[in-house]
Structures are given as structure tokens and as C-alpha cells.
Write a structure and sequence with these properties.
The complex is a heterodimer of chains A (about 270) and B (about 425).
Chain A (H helix, E strand, L loop, with lengths): L1 H24 L2 H29 L7 H23 L5 H15 L9 H6 L3 H36 L12 H34 L7 H22 L5 H24 L9
Chain B lengths: L1 E8 L5 H7 L6 H11 L4 E6 L3 E8 L11 H8 L11 E4 H12 L11 H15 L5 H20 L9 H12 L7 E5 L3 H12 L4 E6 L2 H11 L2 E4 L12 E4 L10 H10 L5 E5 L16 E5 H67 L5 H45 L7
Parallel strand pairs in B: 5-6, 5-8, 6-7, 8-9, 9-10
Antiparallel strand pairs in B: 1-3, 1-4, 2-3
Helix pairs in contact in B: 4-6, 4-11, 5-6, 6-11, 7-8, 11-12
The chains are: A mainly alpha (about 270), B alpha/beta (about 425).
């Protein structure tokens, strides 16, 4: 099954290259093939994940590698949906290589497994609900950060009056700003739902909330961070570059939390050893 | 059959001439009817825009001598002296006519290269002529190919992508900032020809709310009335900019009217809402440092002209690529056209062979009455296969030779060689 992952990496990188060709040369053929390869790459990842599910008989999150693969899958789905509904092909320039990188990194963590006690919980329906909601929320936050990069590039070009061939395909600044905000909202809603389902699961499993779990603490900080951002945005004044910096900092926080709570400050339920 | 284009355009004729020869869609039926009756035309497509008047036509190779040259059509139809336009007229035939049409549809022959309207105009006139049954096989193919080439040039090159005039460049930049210009507010600080054209372009792009600022209420009122805008009076705290999305400054003030420090205060009051400033005044009205403020994008006349210059250079580079697309299409059409010329002769040649075969088979069967049904069928099959094999090579070869543009000569040669009657 591993070859499916490798083929997916190849398809996603090729898709990103074709998107670049489309941006530079305005080739419709490259755009169509780029989208097709993105679909193929996402399809292969989905098939890999489904086969793992069938093979193991429970939600396939046995190793840290599985966790990365699942993050990659949801990230690429978020990317594909954004391209399909918002015509933001430009997103593929960064998201596909990012997903390919996540998949390549995943191979290094094939031996970091969950404890046998935690594996039992992967058969619980609340856990099965909690994990995808959480990771999809992260995927949306990452997409918002990627969009922020495009905003910052276009803002710089607008200020310096020097436009590249690629930026012609970027959406207008105000629209990117709005999309960033949408994705942060989506991520925040999912993060909140993830926390609720996680709390319910903890209560169901042990009649207690895991206040001391490092992941719970980190996630609480992430939630607070985005709550503060949304509050500021709704009060007004947080438009443009400020939104971008907030989205990028939030994304950095997520990556730190992800690695820290999965490798350094691990717990029985959340960690991989 | 000769396919040709006869007409004049902005390069060959002045607007005074073009406007006297311009056709309207209402005149299509009458014009076509005149062309078909007096000019021995078998197919025709008219094209009349503000920059050109052209007649694409197909005429039989040999005309009966009564037909007038298409060049006379304009004098005849519009009742104008031929001398008015004679020197401005051009006429291209065959491949050159196709090249001309493909360049027109691709906007390579337009006054502003890359302008998007021409493709729609070609389509509109073509459809009008189709509705009046004036289009046959040749012009249908040529126009369909032209529309495809036009689309291809637009999608595969960036020829029509960027603005090549200062007002339009300002509109394009505004579109890069705001997702849509609908519902946006434009404030005009001073009025002038270029700022009015820019406002008009912004209006075409959807802007509805326009304010005009002046030092005195009377002057503001006068300028606003002229533009159908709201009059406002200048105040040093720029309160008039609180809800503005686009500011166009073009006063004759000898100093900066908009300064960075006051602008920074204003941006706080605006809650950092994006602001696009176009300063087309000389001397400038807006302090250049305003561009350093977050979410403010300031462009002066030099910036816009620099963008326009670069876009023009970009367009000329893209023209080479566009020309390659046009040339490939011309080659394809020329080859199709040439093969079309040999087709009637080949049809007659095939029919001649078939008649000969049928007669020989009939004679053989009449002489051998003892042949049963199966044997007769075999003879039929064999004779057909033999004829097909013999005819295949010369047919393919003739089609290929015809594509070099000598289709008519080869068709005549074939007719001569086998003493073939014409298809009619």
C-alpha cells in the first residue's frame, strides 16, 4: 500500500508544477491537467486511508505516520474544495507541495505508535468523530495561512508597483482577506466542536475531563488565540496584513502544538511513542 | 472558387470615410441581397465595426462577365463616389483573406491590440449572415476557424490581459484591490479630463457612488452636477475620505493636499479599510509617503504610465506568439480549402471508375450465364476491391498535392486526363 502514498506524492508535485505552468503561461491545458492530477493524488490518499481502515478494522490512527497521512488527506480535500468552489487554483501552488512534504515526513514516523490503551479508544464513535473534526479544523487554519502568503505577495507588489506574471491569477486583495477570514471561522467552529466531542469522549471513557493532558492545554491556547482574533476582527480594524499575520502565527502555533504534543509532551491518549 | 475579403479599416481610411460606409445590422438583408444579385457572389459575410467595414465572399472562379467587382458595392449601396474610398480599399484572396480574418478575430488588427470586443462583433455579424442564408461551406468553415483562433489567442496569450491606457490601468488596479467595484465609493478631488474618463471607466465597472470635492460649495456643486455626483467641500481632516474606497486627485494645487500624518489618523478612524488613491495631478496632490501606510495604495501619473508602458511591451511580445497561432490556423485552413477544390473532380473520377466497373461486370455476367449467385457476388466484391485499390493511391496523392494550393490545376488535369465531365 505504501506505493499509493508515493504515487500520490508524485501526482501532487506534478499537479503543483502544472499549476505554476498555467499561472506563467496561461495554458488552459496545464490548468486542466493540474486539477486532474490533484484529484488523482487526493483519490490515491483516500484509497490508502480507506484500505488502512478496512485492514485494521478501526480508525487508522495507530502511528504518527497515520496522523500525518490523515492531516495530508484533509488538507488536500480542503484545497480541492477551495479550487472547485472558489476557483482559487493559485492555492495549489503551495498546498500540494506542502501535502507532499507532510507525506514524506510521515515516513520518518512510522514507528511512533500509540499505546495499546489508546488504541482501544479508536473504536469509540466519539473518538472517531473527534479526530477528523479536529484535523479538518487544522487543515482550514493551514489553508488560511497559505492564502495569507498570497495576500502578502500581492500587497507587496501593489505597494512596489511591480507585478509578477503569477500574481495576475491571484484574487483581489479584499477577496483574499475575506477568504482568510472564512477559513479561520470554519477552523474555529471545527476546533470548538472538536473540543466538545473530545470532552464528551473523555467523560464517557473515564467520567473525568483531561485538564492536565498537554494536548488539551495546547489546544485550549490555540482556541483562545483564534477567539481573540475573531473578537478583534469583529470589532473592526483587523483587515489585510494584520489578518495575514494572525493567520500565519496561528498556523505556526498549530505546527508547534502538533509536534510538541505528539513527540515531546506526550500523554497516554494523545501521544505517539 | 475564390474566397476573398474586400474592405477598409482604421489603418487605411479616416473615420470620415468609415462612417459613410458603415453598415448596420438592419441593413444586412438588403446588402446581402444586392451582393448575391449583382456581384455573382455565392457566399458572403459582412463585418462592420467602428474600425472596419469588410465583405468576405466566395465567388466562382470563372464569372460570366456581367458581375461587377465587389469594390463597386460600397459606391452602389451607399450612393457615394468610388473615389471616396478607392485608395483606402484592400482586397485579399485565399490564404491571405483567411489570415486577415484570423488576425481581425484575434484582435491583432485592432486599433488597440488585444481589445476584447472584436471577437463578439465577428460572431454577431457571422450569425446575422447565417440567419439570412448567406453562408455556405467555405465561409462557415473560415468563420468558425476564425472564432476558434480568436478564443485561442485570448486564452493562450496575455495579449488582452492588461490595460494600455492610464484611466483603464487605474480601473484594473482598483479591481486588484477590491473584489468588485459595485457599491464602492469614489471621491474626486478636483476635476479634469483624465479624472473624468477614469470615473467614467469606474462607472462602467460598477461604481455608483461618486463624490466631488472642491474648496468652495459653489465649485463643488458645479463639478458634481456635470458628473451626476455628490458635492462635498474639502476639509483638512479628510472627513470626506471616511467612507471612500477610491480617491482620484487631480487638482492644480501647487502643494500636497493629502499628507501622511493626517492620513494615518484617518486610517484609524476608517478602521484600516483599504483605500486606493490615484494621484494624476502635476504637481502631485498626495504626499508619496502616504503609500507607506498600511492598507493604502497610492499611484501617481508616472506609476500608471509606467504600468501602461510595460503592458504595451508585454502585448507586443505576446503578438509574436499570437501570430504563430494565427499562422498555424491559416495553414490548416489553406489545406482544407485546397482539398475542397479537388473534391468535385475526385467525386467525378470515382463515379467514372464505378460506371466502368459496373459495365464490365455486367458484360462478364452476361457472357457467363452459368455463374451462380455466390460466384456473381465474388466477382462484384473482387471488382470493387480492385477499383478501390487502384483509386486509393492517386486519390490520396491528389489530396496532398492539392493542399499545396494548386488544387484547381490538379482538378483540371484530372478532368483532362480521363475526359471527365463536370459534376453538374
Amino acid at each position: 500500500m505504501e506505493y499509493l502514498l508515493m504515487l500520490s506524492v508524485v501526482a501532487l508535485i506534478a499537479s503543483s508544477v502544472l499549476t505554476l505552468v498555467f499561472m506563467v503561461r496561461s495554458s488552459d491545458g496545464a490548468k486542466v491537467w493540474g486539477r486532474a492530477l490533484l484529484g488523482i493524488g487526493a483519490g490515491m490518499l483516500a484509497v490508502y486511508f480507506f484500505l488502512q481502515f478496512v485492514y485494521l478494522g478501526y480508525f487508522p490512527l495507530r502511528t504518527l505516520k497515520d496522523s500525518f497521512v490523515f492531516l495530508a488527506l484533509l488538507l488536500i480535500i480542503a484545497n480541492a474544495l477551495t479550487i472547485a468552489f472558489m476557483r482559487l487554483d493559485v492555492l495549489n501552488l503551495i498546498v500540494s507541495p506542502l501535502v507532499a512534504a507532510v507525506l514524506l515526513v510521515a515516513f520518518f514516523f512510522a514507528n511512533n505508535t500509540k499505546s495499546p490503551d489508546a488504541l482501544v479508544y479508536l473504536r469509540n464513535y466519539l473518538a472517531v468523530l473527534h479526530i477528523p473534526i479536529f484535523i479538518l479544523g487544522y487543515a482550514f487554519f493551514i489553508v488560511s495561512a497559505v492564502l495569507s502568503i498570497f495576500y502578502l505577495i500581492l500587497d507587496r507588489e501593489m505597494k512596489h508597483k511591480d507585478f509578477s506574471r503569477i500574481s495576475h491569477h491571484f484574487p483581489p486583495l479584499l477577496r483574499i482577506d475575506r477568504y482568510i477570514n472564512y477559513f479561520i471561522w470554519l477552523g474555529f467552529i471545527l476546533l470548538t466542536l472538536g473540543i466538545v466531542t473530545g470532552a464528551l469522549f473523555a467523560w464517557q471513557a473515564s467520567y473525568a475531563f483531561n485538564y492536565a493532558d498537554p494536548k488539551v492545554i495546547f489546544v485550549f491556547f490555540i482556541w483562545l488565540y483564534y477567539f481573540a482574533y475573531i473578537h478583534r476582527r469583529m470589532r473592526g480594524g483587523w483587515v489585510g496584513k494584520r489578518t495575514c499575520y494572525a493567520a500565519l502565527a496561528g498556523c505556526a502555533l498549530i505546527f508547534v502544538a502538533y509536534f510538541a504534543t505528539n513527540l515531546l509532551f506526550t500523554s497516554v491518549i494523545h501521544g505517539f511513542r | 472558387m475564390i474566397v476573398s475579403v474586400t474592405g477598409l479599416n482604421h489603418k487605411t481610411a479616416s473615420v470620415e470615410v468609415r462612417e459613410r460606409l458603415a453598415l448596420s445590422v438592419d441593413q444586412v438583408e438588403r446588402a446581402l441581397s444586392r451582393l448575391f444579385h449583382a456581384y455573382a457572389v455565392s457566399e458572403a459575410v459582412l463585418l462592420s465595426t467602428c474600425n472596419r467595414v469588410e465583405i468576405y465572399s466566395v465567388c466562382p472562379r470563372e464569372q460570366d462577365g456581367k458581375a461587377q467587382p465587389i469594390a463597386d458595392f460600397f459606391a452602389d449601396f451607399f450612393s457615394v463616389p468610388k473615389a471616396l474610398y478607392e485608395l483606402s480599399l484592400y482586397r485579399y484572396e485565399g490564404e491571405k483573406a483567411a489570415r486577415h480574418l484570423f488576425r481581425v478575430a484575434s484582435s491583432l488588427d485592432s486599433m488597440v491590440v488585444g481589445e476584447p470586443q472584436i471577437l463578439g462583433q465577428v460572431k454577431e455579424w457571422f450569425q446575422a449572415c447565417v440567419r439570412h442564408n448567406a453562408v455556405g461551406v467555405v465561409l462557415n468553415e473560415m468563420l468558425q476557424r476564425a472564432l476558434r483562433v480568436g478564443k485561442k489567442v485570448r486564452s493562450e496569450t496575455s495579449i488582452g490581459r492588461s490595460a494600455v491606457s492610464v484611466p483603464y490601468a487605474a480601473v484594473e488596479l482598483a479591481k486588484k484591490i477590491f473584489s468588485s467595484l459595485e457599491g464602492k465609493t469614489v471621491t474626486l478631488l478636483g476635476t479634469g479630463k483624465m479624472s473624468e474618463v477614469t470615473v467614467k471607466n469606474l462607472g462602467n465597472a460598477g461604481v455608483r457612488d461618486i463624490c466631488v470635492i472642491s474648496r468652495t460649495p459653489e465649485r463643488a456643486e458645479a463639478s458634481a452636477q456635470h458628473l451626476g455626483a455628490k458635492p462635498l467641500v474639502f476639509d483638512p481632516e479628510y472627513r470626506f475620505l471616511r467612507d471612500t474606497d477610491i480617491l482620484i486627485a487631480s487638482t492644480s494645487a501647487p502643494h500636497f493636499l493629502i499628507r501622511k500624518d493626517a492620513m494615518q489618523e484617518l486610517m484609524l478612524a476608517r478602521r484600516h479599510k483599504l483605500l486606493f488613491i490615484v494621484d494624476i495631478a502635476v504637481p502631485r496632490n498626495v504626499e508619496p509617503a502616504v503609500n507607506d501606510i498600511e492598507n493604502v495604495y497610492l499611484y501617481n501619473i508616472d506609476d500608471l504610465e509606467h504600468i501602461v508602458r510595460r503592458n504595451r511591451e508585454e502585448r507586443s511580445k505576446e503578438m509574436q506568439h499570437a501570430d504563430e497561432i494565427v499562422e498555424a490556423a491559416v495553414t490548416g485552413f489553406a489545406s482544407w480549402l485546397a482539398s475542397l477544390e479537388i473534391m468535385p473532380a475526385l467525386k467525378v473520377f470515382r463515379s467514372f471508375l464505378e460506371q466502368m466497373r459496373a459495365a464490365e461486370v455486367e458484360r462478364l455476367i452476361a457472357e457467363n450465364k452459368h455463374f451462380d449467385a455466390a460466384q456473381r457476388e465474388k466477382i462484384e466484391y473482387f471488382s470493387r476491391a480492385l477499383i478501390n485499390k487502384i483509386a486509393h493511391k492517386p486519390t490520396e496523392r491528389l489530396k496532398k498535392l492539392a493542399s499545396s494550393g494548386e488544387g484547381y490545376t490538379y482538378a483540371e488535369f484530372l478532368r483532362e486526363l480521363f475526359e471527365l465531365e463536370s459534376e453538374d
